[in-house]
Amino acid sequence: MQRIKRQALTKLLQKCTNPTHLTQLHSLLLRLGLLTPTNSFFPALLTSTYTKLFSVPTALKLFYEIPKPSTFLYNSLLRAHSRSHQWKQCLNLLKAMKDENAKPDKFTLCIALKSCTGLSAFVQGKEIHALALKKELAMSDVFVGAALVELYSKCGDMFSALVYSSMIASYGMHGIIEKAMETFNNMINSSIKPNNITFVSLLSACSHAGLVQEGKQVYESMDLVYGVRPGPEHKVIVVDLLSRAGEVDEALLVVKHMNNGLINNPHALNTLLLGCTGYKEGNCRGYVN
């Protein structure tokens, strides 16, 4: 019976959307003795529900009575403060997490970075960036990457190009080519000059998505529009893109313009040979020989 009662209360709290009903559930939990320091499940769930209904003061009161709040619970409060643009409170919670040895996740870092942007707290933002790198989230998670781009763009730091490039690479790895292109355009519109790394990221995104025409346009614009001379790392990606699309003749032209051709580029050679499989093999073999 006790188990059924707990399951019913759990479902009621999870589905509660009315502040008056939540207050009644809160009173019921108190009467049943379910809000004790030794049992953190219902205090945590109640706190989370209060944050969803924008009752942050009550949520905070419950939160500070929980011995070891979970990362999920910290994130619930962070989201509530973030919705009200209470950036300082967000960073205070992040400090509390650190003091309690709670482990921030990608949701924590997104809100923390957004808070730094809201406060123009660039130094603290760089510290959170370092934490994101340590957790391997700066490039692997698109939302963390977007928050980093927003931070560095507002603060106008010299590392903006690197962050944009990382974001483009992240979108490319996840196959979100439209966002990769959009991020590149935002970078240009923000008067941030793209560099070698930027074009490696953008060309790789085109290659992964099989966008031949877009990849060609990016490659051709490097020197003509942005004054970035294509290096071997860019040309190998273009060779891969063209050869996999069956455009081996064009891939050969790119190779011929590489310093020493294929001699010092075994990766370009392998890429080209893979693209030749079943397509004009004689031409490729003749050139390679």
Characterize the structure shown.
The protein has 289 residues and is mainly α. Helix content is 73%, strand content 0%. The chain has 17 helices and no strands. Helix 3 packs parallel to helix 5, helix 4 packs antiparallel against helix 5 and helix 7 runs antiparallel to helix 8. The protein is elongated and about 80 Å long.
Proportion of residues in β-strands: under 5%
Q: What is the helix tally?
A: 17
Averaging pLDDT over every residue, what do you get? 83
Helix content: over 70%
Q: Cα-atom Rg, whole angstroms?
A: 26 Å
- How many strand units? 0
Element order: H for helix, E for strand: HHHHHHHHHHHHHHHHH
Structural class designation: mainly alpha
Largest sheet: none
**Uncertain runs:** none
End-to-end C-alpha gap:
81 Å
Shape: elongated
Concise synopsis of the structure shown:
The protein is mainly α. The protein starts with a helix and ends with a helix.
Secondary-structure blueprint:
Layout: H1 2-15, H2 19-31, H3 41-52, H4 56-63, H5 71-83, H6 87-99, H7 106-119, H8 122-134, H9 142-155, H10 160-173, H11 177-189, H12 196-209, H13 212-226, H14 232-244, H15 248-256, H16 266-276, H17 281-288
Helix pairs in contact: 2-3, 3-4, 3-5, 4-5, 5-6, 5-7, 6-7, 7-8, 7-9, 8-9, 9-10, 10-11, 10-12, 11-12, 12-13, 12-14, 13-14, 14-15, 14-16, 15-16, 16-17
